[in-house]
Amino acid sequence: MALVIGILVVVVGIVVSIALHEVGHMVPAKAFGVRVSQYMVGFGPTLWSRRKGETEYGFKAIPLGGYVRMVGMYPPAPAGVRQRGGGLFSQVVADARDASTEEIRPGEEGRAFYHLSAPKKVVVMLGGPFMNLVIAFVLMLVVCVGIGLPAVTTTVGSVAPCVAETVTTADEECAPDAAPSPATAAGLEPGDTIVSFDGQDVSSWDQLAGMIRGAADATVPLVVERDGQRVDLTITPTEAQRQVVADDGTPVVDDAGEPVTEPAGVVGFTPTVERSSAGVGTAVEATWQQVSGTAAMIVTLPVKVGEAVEAAFTDAPRGQDSVMSVVGVGRVAVDVAGADNPVLDRVVTMLLLLAALNVALFVFNLVPLLPLDGGHVVNALYEGGKRTVARVRGLPRPGPADVARMMPVAYVMFVVLIGVGGLLILADIIDPVRLT
User: Fold this and answer.
1) Residue 24: which of 72, 83, 66, 74 has the closest Cα?
2) 211-243 pLDDT tens trace
3) Is-contact 238 182, C-beta < 8 A?
4) What domains can be seen in the chain, in order of their start residue?
5) What is the pTM of this model?
6) Are strands 261-266 and 55-70 parallel, antiparallel or unpaired?
7) Per-residue pLDDT tens digits for 274-301
């Protein structure tokens, strides 16, 4: 059942994300008067389609992409430019121009995409990636504001019978002659909420943890709320070696990967964790962190792909931050669905996984190379820049940018993307990313 749920979540999430991405292109294109002849989700053989108005809507067999066919994507060859040359690339360019021209029906020349102004072209091409960014942000809002983020409270969840002397023995059972933990000796009970420590009011777990760490071997007064009543206790934190934690909450390790420890006061209880609604600002920050992190990964994509392939065919470990294919995302979803965690936690992880997928679609499509949306944006900006310079200098208005000349680049990029995708799929089959 976990396998089925994981696969369904990934497939449905990908299909919806792709479908809305293409809607982001189609809506502004239609609004600007461009004739959209096809709206398709997927590639390969058509499974279902229906024509409504002048547009055919449908689904294809392979849900790994989609497209909106906008009439007249490539303008005719500029005056004085040879239409066909003898080389392969020249034939590719000429074929692209011919196919684009054939789509334009008589009397609808003005509805061709290449007739749009540069700003309108930018809006149309950015509409798809922007839609993925909106989806990711909405999912972040659901998690951060709707469901809430986990936060450690000052309420006691469980009380340890003893305290481990070092971080490496923290999970071991108590020795027969082990002294009771300070929490047990003080009479702390699960459900107690600590409201005061050493005479200072306690408002957060971070504050309380800092006070405990700095009070080793000191006997201090402790006030807890138990069953609606305040109870005065006395506690003496004991000194033990505990791992150093950075400001961002990540454990600190040395060059050999071993935990860095320091003496600190401990009392031997585990706090409860509750979800609380965060503000919209938290969702914005989380989305931005996803975007910036994904952008950094794409900049180093060749290195990341190499590391994933190396891990698949050698003993090198594959980190949880490794770049993945759709197959890898699916396997992570299966792991999440089958994990022994509360249902709500698994739902949150699935939502965050889909948010990360949409952020990846947003960032990756901004790469300024055809056939990606960013390549069309760059051509539109180039066209707009030429026209601005001509207007300032009083020169005739230049025609549309000859985007068809970039088709060889698009074909090379397509081959590269297929190759990279194949390598990552292979790596995800042989040595998938594991959550634990």
Assistant:
1) 66
2) 998 888 899 999 999 998 999 999 999 888 777
3) yes
4) 131-146+278-436 (no CATH), 150-276 (2.30.42.10)
5) 0.81
6) unpaired
7) 888 888 999 999 999 999 999 988 888 8
